[in-house]
């Protein structure tokens, strides 16, 4: 499944893992299942921190596979092929599950960890979609960070029946708890803002804990800069 160049690059990435990763496949007798089994076996051969096993008794889509830490059933799941534009999504999911940190802002990562509620996301993608990886990667990261968030990235080419049944007209198409959530490109920040309904309340509580400001300047344009200079000249401490 992977050529020599891809294996070399992936092996280098997997050296960044700090904790073990388990690939748990749920397969059937289809040709696509055979492809996924071959792919996961090749990945597991590239790092001693990655193991591969099958569990075909799980009540999930076939073929699919979960990326998790040993002993855990929490993590991002791919249903169908994770190749094409989604190969990067697969690599990042392996790295994040294996303890390699995301480059997203620490405050945003903490916000994801603090999200309260049970969320089950499903994202339909195609292997040629340019906008799909951003959405898949955002939701995969959320599933890695918060045990109450689940995400399955679904290859529409493999699960064409679902595309038809749900009348999916374009990808990426995201469903949350069985209902339409969004379509098209979305950033991690946008997704978090949409589901974290308690964020404003927490921000207000945090602001109320701070001492009173002499002057609070919102914005950093010319007007904001002038206001800061004027406040400083008047012996105020601008923030």
Helix content: 25-40%
N-end to C-end Cα span: 56 Å
Report the sheet with the most strands, covering strand number, pairing sense and barrel closure. Answer: 8 strands, mixed
Mean pLDDT: 93
Judging by the overall fold, what is the CATH architecture of the largest domain? 3-Layer(aba) Sandwich
Structural class: alpha/beta
The CATH class name of the largest domain reads Alpha Beta
Q: How many domain regions?
A: 2
Helix/strand order, N-terminal first? HEHEEEHHEHEHEEHHH
Cα-atom radius of gyration: 22 Å
Read across the widest sheet, the strand sequence of neighbours is 2-1-3-4-6-5-7-8
Beta content comes to 15-25%
Total count of strands: 8
Instruction: Please tell me what the overall shape is.
Output: elongated
């Amino acid at each position: 499944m992977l050529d020599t160049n891809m294996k070399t690059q992936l092996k280098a990435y997997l050296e960044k893992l700090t904790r073990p990763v388990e690939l748990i496949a749920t397969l059937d007798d289809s040709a696509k299942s055979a492809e996924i089994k071959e792919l996961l076996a090749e990945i597991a051969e590239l790092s001693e921190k990655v193991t591969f096993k099958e569990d075909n008794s799980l009540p999930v889509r076939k073929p699919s596979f979960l990326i998790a830490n040993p002993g855990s059933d929490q993590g991002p799941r791919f249903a169908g092929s994770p190749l094409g534009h989604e190969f990067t999504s697969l690599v990042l999911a392996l790295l994040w599950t294996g303890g390699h940190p995301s480059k997203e802002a620490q405050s945003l990562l903490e916000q994801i960890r603090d999200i309260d509620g049970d969320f089950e996301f499903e994202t339909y993608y195609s292997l040629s979609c340019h906008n799909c990886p951003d959405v898949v990667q955002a939701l995969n990261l959320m599933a890695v960070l918060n045990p109450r968030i689940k995400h399955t990235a679904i290859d529409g080419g493999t699960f064409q029946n679902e595309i038809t049944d749900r009348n999916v007209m374009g990808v990426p198409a995201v469903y949350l708890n069985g209902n339409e959530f969004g379509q098209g490109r979305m950033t991690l920040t946008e997704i978090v803002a949409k589901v974290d309904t308690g964020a404003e309340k927490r921000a207000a509580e945090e602001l109320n804990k701070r001492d009173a400001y002499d002057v609070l300047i919102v914005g950093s344009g010319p007007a904001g800069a002038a206001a800061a200079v004027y406040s400083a000249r008047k012996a105020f401490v601008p923030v």
